[in-house]
Write a structure and sequence with these properties.
alpha/beta; Rossmann fold; seven-stranded mixed sheet; two-stranded antiparallel ribbon; binds S-adenosyl-L-homocysteine
Length: 225
């Protein structure tokens, strides 16, 4: 993986150019994404540099793409929808993401909040995402190689937590790491099922929950590799 990117690489050309990115943003708006801050972040982060060069020309299609190790970078619409839902109600300073993958979602979040901590269980992906984000100058993101089942207590509490892999049920330790009125956005349903994307808000020891969408994520797995 390269240590730095040239201006030309970041700017893109043809299928990775700003015009192509703008068309994706138009499509996201048509599909109901209304938060201008989210749309601007989606416009500015170069998704083509978060996937392998061989599929970079597909980076601005509204589709999930493979990133190796059996994992995928999420569909842009889902990234935008989850980001919008996470930031909806309150001023968010710090976000915990579980499932760094390529680092793309973390990059989007880093444009919108002060501090992002993102946890990834696959060491090779964590290392690649860390190098990539550093090369692109996203300095307020920390990638941690760890099992996200127990969250990341050192940075807690968080106003917002986003999980980008699907467990069978909500890991309770994540709720413990939310601030009061904090928001958790998480797909629940596990492997091979249609998963329900939930938005859970903590109020003291209680939570309230709303279903946002039906989604399809890779499974949330235990342990680090
Ligand atoms: N948000 C990523 C895409 C997520 S793919 C992006 O923008 O590219 C889901 C990721 O979650 C995978 O990389 C997978 O390894 C990771 N994952 C699955 N279970 C996990 C766990 N228990 N802890 C941390 N990461 C996990």
């Amino acid at each position: 993986m390269k240590r730095g990117y040239t201006e030309d690489q970041i700017r893109g050309i043809g299928m990775t150019s700003q015009r192509t990115r703008d068309r994706l943003v138009d499509r996201l708006r048509d599909k109901g994404i209304a938060d201008v801050r989210v749309l601007d972040a989606m416009r500015s982060v170069p998704r083509h540099l978060f996937v392998d060069e061989a599929i970079a020309t597909r980076a601005y299609e509204d589709t999930a793409l493979p990133i190796g190790h059996g994992q995928t970078i999420s569909q842009p619409y889902v990234v935008a929808r989850m980001t919008e839902a996470l930031l909806q109600n309150q001023d968010v300073q710090s976000v915990l993401e579980i499932g760094s993958g390529s680092g793309y979602q973390a990059a989007i979040l880093s444009r919108l909040v002060k501090r992002v901590i993102s946890v990834e269980r696959i060491g090779a992906l964590a290392e690649q995402a860390r190098t990539r984000l550093r090369s692109l100058g996203y300095r307020n993101v920390e990638i941690v190689h760890s099992d996200g089942e127990s969250g990341w207590a050192r940075g807690a509490p968080y106003e917002a937590i986003m999980v980008t892999a699907a467990p069978d049920r909500v890991p309770t330790r994540l709720l413990d790491q939310l601030t009061d009125k904090g928001t958790l956005v998480i797909p629940v349903g596990g492997r091979g099922n249609t998963q329900r994307l939930l938005r859970i808000v903590r109020a003291g020891d209680e939570t309230s929950q709303e279903e946002l969408d039906l989604v399809s994520f890779v499974p949330f797995l235990q342990g680090c590799v």
